[in-house]
Write a structure and sequence with these properties.
single chain; mainly alpha; two-stranded antiparallel ribbon; 2 strands; 73% helix
């Protein structure tokens, strides 16, 4: 088992804080299902970033600048990699046709499961490094492979092809449409009367959880390349994961605009892999990791914003003469009235 680097009361206080925040989210803020607005998502994203960076300040005051810089590097690695995972979550919800108002519930349970699994992965990873030192080179090779796959544009497998999902479908019948926020229900009539059925929300949750297991294979070795302090590794993971839900609703539709994000992440993973492989030869200063990650993310973000400008200018509509404008407006109004009527019929059929 990894060595305990902080008092037990510090662990207990941190776990109590996490449980309190999760309870606030589940039983107060999202007691009733609703579609998360951009304003709400932006506000909570800012709150979680402030909390994550504020905790870095706490670590600095308590354990010194070097430990705080290790925490910051781990937080930035996990936060940046989670953005790539967000776009995969969007594909999962689209594949299973999960309405926007129910997506937060799936993400919440998925992140609770991820918090538990990450604790196990981190403990196992640190124990392996302490018991078998050459494992460090295996972790480095895994990160280099992940960086190469990301750089060449490798894509994730389709959500419907998940092995866990195929196993679940084999043992549990699945309804065709969601039934509110329910993950299970009992069939009321027909051949399946009284039988337990899974809803698409359960399928999405299973895929989200298995996706996080795969995601941890990259993120955990990346953070262990920075530090093996279990408290620093786990707390940086937790703050990044807790902010992922709000960040999802803020960025889920921006995959096309962040076109240079994956190359930037590939550079970060490759650099972390090199740091891990050279750990026995070169000692990098503590400030180098957060500084490098910040510069790479800033360059990737600036390049993405710059790359979207020409498309926006090309997509800008050209002015038309007044006569044609009036004709198009009348045609558009008729088309919108027909669309509104179709939407009302569709909504009645859904509910």
């Amino acid at each position: 088992m990894p060595a305990v680097t902080v008092p037990v009361w510090a662990w207990a206080a941190f776990v109590a804080f996490v449980i309190a925040m999760l309870a606030l989210d589940v039983f107060v803020l999202h007691r009733r299902a609703h579609e998360v607005s951009l304003r709400e998502a932006g506000l909570w994203s800012a709150v979680w970033i402030v909390l994550g960076l504020g905790f870095c300040g706490l670590v600095w005051a308590w354990a010194g600048g070097a430990t705080a810089q290790d925490y910051l590097a781990g937080y930035l690695i996990e936060k940046s990699l989670s953005v790539d995972n967000i776009f995969l979550f969007a594909a999962i919800f689209s594949a299973f046709a999960i309405p926007a108002r129910y997506q937060h519930r799936v993400l919440m349970l998925g992140i609770i499961g991820a918090l538990v699994m990450r604790a196990g992965f981190i403990a196992a990873g640190i124990s392996l490094l302490e018991a078998i030192h050459p494992v460090i080179y295996v972790f480095g090779a895994v990160l280099l492979l992940a960086a190469f796959n990301m750089l060449r544009g490798g894509t994730h497998a389709a959500p419907e092809q998940s092995l866990a999902l195929r196993w679940l479908r084999r043992w549990l019948p699945v309804t065709e449409q969601p039934h509110g926020q329910r993950f299970f229900l009992r069939a009321g009539h027909g051949k399946r009367s009284g039988r337990l059925l899974a809803t698409p929300l359960l399928l999405a949750l299973v895929v989200v959880e298995t996706t996080d297991v795969i995601f941890a294979v990259d993120s955990i070795p990346a953070i262990l390349a920075v530090t093996t302090d279990p408290f620093v590794v786990y707390t940086s993971n937790v703050f990044a994961l807790l902010g992922m839900r709000a960040l999802y609703f803020l960025l889920a539709g921006a995959a096309g605009r962040l076109r240079y994000l994956r190359p930037g992440l590939a550079v970060i993973l490759a650099a972390v892999a090199v740091k891990l492989l050279l750990a026995d030869v070169v000692q990098f200063p503590a400030w180098s990791a957060p500084a490098f990650i910040t510069v790479v993310l800033a360059v990737a973000a600036a390049a993405s914003l710059r790359g979207t400008r020409p498309r926006a200018e090309l997509a800008r509509p050209k002015p038309m003469c007044p006569g044609r404008v009036s004709r198009f407006r009348s045609e558009d109004s008729r088309l919108l009235s027909r669309t509104d009527e179709a939407d009302r019929v569709g909504h009645l059929a859904f509910f």
